Amino acid sequence: MRLTLRVWRQTGPGEPGAMTEYQVSGIVPEMSFLEMLDVLNEELILRGEDPVAFDHDCREGICGACGMVINGQAHGPERTTTCQLHMREFGDGDTIDVEPWRAAAFPVVKDLVVDRSAFDRIIGAGGYITAPTGSAPDAHAVPVPKEAAETAFENAECIGCGACVAACPNGSAMLFTSAKVVHLNTLPQGAPERESRVLGMVGAMDAEGFGGCTNAGECATACPKGIPLPSIAAMNREYLRAARRAPR
Amino acid sequence: MTMALATRTASPSALRTLWGSTVGKKAVMATTGVLMLLYLVAHMLGNLKVFFGPDDLNGYAAWLRTLGQPVLHHEWFLWTARSVLLAAVVLHGVCAYQLSRRDIAARPTGYAHKRHRASYATRTMRWGGVILGLFIVWHILDLTTLTVNPRAQQGHPYENLVASFSTWYGGGVYIVAMLALCLHVHHGFWSAAQTLGANSARRDRALKITATVLAAALTIGFLSVPVAVMTGLVR
Ligand code: HEM
Ligand code: FES
């Protein structure tokens, strides 16, 4: 396959950037999108040019490091992570636009790499449980109703890639934050911090400059892990309950 | 301390928490939106009295002024309702404005590869809301204060609405506004359920269907009146 790529190139934080056109050839349908970028980068290095910077780590769809907007869609046309997206989704001769996540809270570090530490600070504001450390607790020491376990697990699948923010017309982090809140607030282990968790995490989310939710639903469509839109409703419910009970 | 916190109910600081957060402000928007929706259902049903003739509609309008008597004074019910609605529309608009500013600021650089995000109804909530806001002003000037309705007379709502809808602009403005309302409610009702935490995976479909039915019923109900006047069915 021969492809025309238009990639966002930016030398550093706050620097001006531009979509830059490249031709790549020798691409086979079995390659992942990141492998295709590796091919491009090898050529750029041989030509003495700066390779395209992009985040990646596991390359098996579980770490959430990779992430780019491909033809206007977070992680591209398939509902998966960019590392698990294969070139068979594209046709020979296609032109593909590749851009970084766009959000005020995710400043561009370089090219396609953005700073997602805002997510870490949201987690720091309550995305954990207070538990005695030491030996692992016995399995089933705390009974968890099956339905709660399933809801918690569904939301625990979030890998924090940030596709929800990138896809949202408002750059909102509601799907990410709700996945974390619902995961922990559904379980008995998360009950002691039920109110402070949701108040704290929503507070941190707002402080980072993410937009609000207009229930557009783009986040849940883009999420490679299928975090459902009703998780946002569940977090809203938790928030309104907590605001009533524990005013700060 | 813990006791005090646990037994304390809604306090000014809870309100401040809500007003200061995107989730809380959106809840204000959803609550005021639902309040206006309930009013609109009653308003639409009341309007249908036009099909029973002038005496029926005018009698109903007069009754709205005596409603609650003798406990309430003449028109007290009416003015209470008007105050609540005014507060609701102002709060709704202020929240919409503040949240929208925030949302736009959260994506300072757009994508070079453009693509429509979300459904038409969802994308038009802001401008549709502005159309509704302008319509509310026009509607009050047209049929309440009668300022822009030259052939109208205080106390004759039936004749006044026939006079308004007999002009091309009277009917036209109304029809455009009701189509905007249809879209706004279509997204707004389900959205409010989501915002207030009433949605869940199990209820999602039912809420979406209710939103569609509600939007269609309101629009058809409201539109039947100007259409009836313009086709000569109601004179
Ligand atoms: C007849 C009057 C109106 C009714 C019945 C109504 C109803 C609603 C409802 C139920 C919602 C959903 C709230 C939520 O999801 O939190 C909503 C949202 C909204 N309304 Fe209204 N509204 C009305 C007038 C207005 C006006 C005058 C404006 C403009 C100032 C406006 C702007 C908006 C906006 C921007 C949203 C948010 C849209 C979104 O989240 O995507 N509305 N409205
Ligand atoms: S590189 Fe780990 S999810 Fe893609």
TrEMBL record, chain A:
Q: Which SUPFAM superfamilies match?
A: 2Fe-2S ferredoxin-like (SSF54292), alpha-helical ferredoxin (SSF46548)
Gene3D superfamilies noted in UniProt: 3.10.20.30, Alpha-helical ferredoxin
Cofactor(s) this protein cannot do without: [2Fe-2S] cluster; [3Fe-4S] cluster
Q: Name one Pfam family in it.
A: Fer4_8
Q: Which UniProt keywords apply?
A: Iron, Iron-sulfur, Metal-binding
Q: Which domain of life is it from?
A: Bacteria
GO biological process terms, alphabetically, are: aerobic respiration; respiratory electron transport chain
- What GO MF annotations does this protein's record show? 2 iron, 2 sulfur cluster binding; electron transfer activity; metal ion binding
Domain named 4Fe-4S ferredoxin-type is located at: 149-179
UniProt cross-references to InterPro entries, sorted A to Z: 2Fe-2S_ferredoxin-like_sf, 2Fe2S_fd_BS, 4Fe4S_Fe-S-bd, 4Fe4S_Fe_S_CS, Beta-grasp_dom_sf, Helical_ferredxn, SDH/FRD_Iron-Sulfur, Succ_DH/fum_Rdtase_N
State whether keyword NAD applies.
no
Family that this chain belongs to: Belongs to the succinate dehydrogenase/fumarate reductase iron-sulfur protein family.
Q: Which named protein is this?
A: Succinate dehydrogenase
Organism name: Wenjunlia tyrosinilytica
